[in-house]
Amino acid sequence: MVTALTAMARAWIRTGRHRMDPVDDSAYYEDLAGRLYGLVITFSDRLPADQTQWLHHVIEVGEYGLALEDLAAMLVYDKIAATDQERGDIKALARQMGMDLGSSWSGPAQAS
Question: The domain containing residue 71 runs over which residues?
Answer without folding.
Answer: 24-96
